[in-house]
Amino acid sequence: MFEQRIFETDFRVALSEELDRRGLSIRQLSEQTGIPAVTLYKIASGERDPRLSTVKKIVAVFSPHHGKFIALIAAKFLLDENEGVKIEANGTAYRIKGYAANSLEDCLIVAVRARNDGAAGIICAPILASLIEKMVDVPVAILKPDMYAVLGAAESIAKRL
C-alpha cells in the first residue's frame, strides 16, 4: 500500500517502487495527477521535496477511494469479520474499512490516517473515543462489546485459573 510505504521509507523510494510495480512512467503519472512531468522528475531524482498537495494528488491516483466508508479501528481478528460489510443510512451506502491497531499509539495514527483517507466516521474502543474525537473532524462512535463477548472473555480467563 503506497500510503503506508511513504511513511516507512523516503518518498522518492516509495514513488519509484510504486511506479515500477504498476508499470507506469513519470509522464503517465503526470497525466493522471495533473502535476507537471518536470516536477515529478525532480521529485523522483531527489532534486526537490514534494509539497503536501503534490503528495495528496499522487496518493489519490495510487489509492483511489471507492465510495464512502466508515473506519473501524480494531485488532486484526475483528477486522477480518467486518471488513467490507456494507450498511445503508439515510439513503447513502457505506462500507466498513478496517484499520488494524495493537497499541494506543497505533490507534491514534490510524485514526488520523482514516480521516485523511476520507472516512465518513470512525468506530473505535470506548477508551479511545474521546481522544480520537479531539483529533479528527468526523463523527466517532464507540464499539461496545455485548454481554456474550464479556461472558466469553470471562470464561476464557476462568479456564486459565
From TrEMBL:
<dbReference type="Pfam" id="PF01381">
    <property type="entry name" value="HTH_3"/>
</dbReference>
<protein>
    <submittedName>
        <fullName>Transcriptional regulator, XRE family</fullName>
    </submittedName>
</protein>
<dbReference type="GO" id="GO:0003677">
    <property type="term" value="F:DNA binding"/>
</dbReference>
<dbReference type="InterPro" id="IPR001387">
    <property type="entry name" value="Cro/C1-type_HTH"/>
</dbReference>
<feature type="domain" description="HTH cro/C1-type">
    <location>
        <begin position="15"/>
        <end position="62"/>
    </location>
</feature>
<dbReference type="InterPro" id="IPR010982">
    <property type="entry name" value="Lambda_DNA-bd_dom_sf"/>
</dbReference>
